[in-house]
Design a protein that fits this description.
Blueprint (H helix, E strand, L loop, with lengths): L17 E9 L3 H12 L5 E7 L6 E5 L2 E5 L2 E11 H15 L9 E7 L11 H6 L1
Antiparallel strand pairs: 1-5, 1-6, 2-5, 3-4
Helix pairs in contact: 1-2
Length: 133
């Protein structure tokens, strides 16, 4: 499978293996992560969702006007990339490197899942059928 430079679609290889790479990152690192994936892994195209959550750090405590507030859920972003199998490892490495802030916790996670049965919303055609033409 190959992805044309600047393209926002996936061209299936003969085996049809496509991987979904998902990453939860701090919001301040979203642009950095996307730029790293484009430049280091050569993949263009991402879905970004706003999210809140916490991991081991269990939120933060801050003081405002003499009162202590606990923010259990922190602002995050969920990035979703659909990539060819051969490119998935490079995308994961680019995300992990770019998302790393140097703090002891809170940089997020990245994971992969195989996907299948992709259908275009506009035409109703399966991706394998469209790309085979």
């Amino acid at each position: 499978m190959a992805v044309a430079p600047g393209a926002f679609f996936v061209v299936w290889d003969k085996e049809g293996r496509v991987i979904k790479v998902e990453a939860v990152v701090i919001r301040e690192r979203v642009e950095t992560v996307i730029d790293a994936v484009e430049s280091e892994a050569g993949h263009v195209g991402v879905t970004v969702l706003e999210a809140v959550g916490h991991g081991r750090q269990r939120g933060i405590t801050h003081e405002y006007r003499g009162r202590v507030f606990e923010s259990r859920f922190l602002p995050k972003a969920l990035l979703i990339f659909v990539v060819e199998d051969a490119r998935a490892e490079a995308v994961v490495e680019a995300i992990a490197d770019a998302a790393r802030s140097g703090n002891p916790a809170g940089d997020g996670l990245v994971w992969t899942s195989p996907i299948q049965d992709v259908t275009h919303n506009r035409t109703g055609a399966r991706l394998e059928e469209v790309e085979a033409r």
